[in-house]
Each structure stands twice: as structure tokens, then as C-alpha cells.
Amino acid sequence: MTLLDRPLAEQASAIASGEADAAELLDETLTRIEGRNPAVNAVVETFPDHSREMLEAAPEGPMHGVPVVIKDEWALPWRAQRFGAVELFSAVGPGESGPYRALRDVGAVIAGVANMHEWGASSTGNVSVYGPARNPWDTDRCPGGSSSGSGAAVGARIVAGAVGADGIGSIRYPAAYCGVTGLKPTFGRSAMQGHHLEGSQMIVSGPLCSDAEGCRLLGSALFGEQLERGDPSGLRIGTVAAIADDSAEPVRAACEEAIEALRDETGASVREIELPGVELSGLAAVLVATSEGLNGVTPSKLNEMSPEIGPINRGIAKYRMLMPGSVLERGRAIRTMMRRTLAAAFADVDLIAWPTVPAVAPPLTEPMVELPSGVHTADAVNPRGGGLANLIGIPAVSVPVGFDDGLPIGLQLQAPWGADALLLDAAEAIERATERRFVDAVAPVAQSTEAQAPHS
Question: Which residues, including other chains, have CB under 8 Å from residue 244's CB and lie 6 or more apart?
């Protein structure tokens, strides 16, 4: 095992103490991308000269010399974001996006750009102008979207940390599918400058890392403030049957076991709570996000869309223009209702816990999942658990807590507005309670540095 296989915080500590050479770690990262990335298609572009220049100019910050990758949603001074697509409705170009500046200012080194689902428009990650990213646990499976490459790169141990973006669960889905930890920050708290949807009230940048301590380090960089470690003793945890009960049995059981482990580790109390209207939150999040995505769209642009845009996204783009304003206002009304519901719930509990996604990663070619309620597309059911945090703006984290037939299972924890650090405290408590056997588990792709071809 090399330093590149160790968690993000350990890499930063080794460089800071002089035990490791940052230039050697960057070279090893670039070599690993060449050897391991063909199996997962997680990293779509590298730029060794720019990465080395970034390292040479890096300040002695808390992430000095640590290599990371960044989602194709963010511009770099030498590269425009492509958003996983052949074209965007909004004009974009190279520049210093907020996440780039945040990484630069703490001394981190961007080693490459991570793949993402086309237009960020799915929870699966199986469509992209670069070709689909693949799950490091089974390369015939979805890695989750839309931060697909970020999750797959960390899961494959290509890097220990990656920057993603979360609009309707887009950090948490790949975290769950790929067996890594992903933090969706409180809205407005993480760097967002330069995003092509300037007025978004849903999207946040955030970290995906091999463990919670890495998310604390990388999240602090994106926040521009330290996410201090606290004491999670005596937590009050709420569970919601309406979400958990319609999950595949292995997923529900693993999440229940993890909640029990968290209770034992922290002396917490656990009780079931009601969240009236929660079943509407996923659809409402989709409606609100749809209205934000209309920025820059005109009938002429729709008619001139490249035929290389996927047929589903071409159809959705045109359908959005036909949606009545009253439907979008209903989505916003549900947002108001759920804000009141969550304010009342968080008066009685500190955290809300339920499965990040109701089933493990589905096949790339047919992303369907079987639940107690029947067979569904992953995109139809994933927002039921993932959309609420974006709709309301609260922070949420996905933590690996088990496996189903060799595929990772994620538990989602949600907290009140601004309680991002508490989520990481709880995630670290779960890691202690489970002796890190899930965060330190190694995916098949990560067990070899040799180039591998996907299964299909």
C-alpha cells in the first residue's frame, strides 16, 4: 500500500511533516490515472504541466500538495467546464471558478477533471459526452450521478478526494453507489462562483472522500472556514418509515444496523418521526431544479440542439418549456411546507437518518431497481431520499455502511441548517463503531494498478 491508497488527511499530514514528497505523489497519481482509469472512465482529462505549475505555486496550506480531481461542472483557468455534454445553453469559458480558487488557496493540486452525467440530469451516471463512468465495485454497474467520475475516482482509489456538486443528491448518490463518503453542504456555504446556473437555489459544491475526516478537510477548503470536530454524544436521531420501508431489504437492514451502531457509540436516542409531505419533496425538488435549468433556454436554441445530446435530455429540455408556471409554483409551495415541517422536526431531533438510495447500484445498460413497491427506474426513486436536503437547503452526508452482493450501501444523515460539522462527527462515530471496515474496504478495481478493460 502506498500513500496514494491512504485517506486524504493522511496524505496531507505526510506531506506537511516531510515524510512524503508532493511532486512524487502527483507523479504517482498521474501514473495511476493512466493505469487504473480505463476501467472506470472516472477522469476525462489530465493536464500534467498545469498540475505541476499549480504544485510549484502552492501555498503551505492545510492541503499543500494533495492531489484531487474536480467535476466537469467547474471551470479552470486553462479549461472550460463541459458539464458532461457536447454543448450548454449558457455561455461558458475557462476561468477561476470558486472551487478552483478554494483548492488553490489551501495548496491542493488538481490532477484531473472528473466525468459527470450529461447536463447533470440523472442519478445514475450512465450517460456522458465522454462515455459513462463505471462503478469500481462492478464496472457493469452505475457509479451514481451526476458526480459520477468524482465518486468512481475516489472509490477506485485513483485519488483520496474529489470535488463534486449536488443539485438533487448528485454527491450522495455516487457516494452510496461507490462506497465513499460524500457531503452535501448547507446551501450557500460552499464555493459556487462561476457556476453556469448563477441563480441556483439548489446546487452546492461539496467533497467526496474515502472517509469523513477527508470530507472535513476538503469541505473546510470549499467552505473557507474550518469544520471543527465536536462531541456527538447524546445525539437524538429520527428515522422515517415512509422512506426506509420502501428500500431493498439488505439496504434497509444495513442502515438500521448502522443507526444502532451509532446509538451505541454515542449514547444516542433513536425514535421514529413523522415528516408530513416528505413523499412530495423529491418531485418538488425536481420541479424547482427544472425551473432553474431554464436559464438561457430559448425556442431557437432548443431547435438547434446538437443531435449528439442524448435523446432523453433533448426531450426533457423541450418538455420543460411546456410546463405551466402553476406546476412550478406548487413545487415552491411544497418547499415552504417542508421548511416548516423540518423546523418542527429538528426541535426534537438532531439528525434524520434513512438510506441514501433504496437499492444498490443498478446495471449501466438498464438502471432499474427492485423494491417492495415494485420495479422502478433508479431516477424515479432516488430523489425520494435525496431531494429534500436540496429543496430545503440543509446539509446531508452519505456514509458507507454495508454491502449487498458485493455492492456498497450508503446511509444518509441530515441535520439542521449549518450543522455540517455535526454530520461529519456522526459519520466518524459510525466509522469507529464499525471499525472502519466499510470506509477502508477496497473495490476490485482498486486492488490493481494495472490497466483494465470494462466488463462490457
Answer: 252, 255, 256, 354, 355
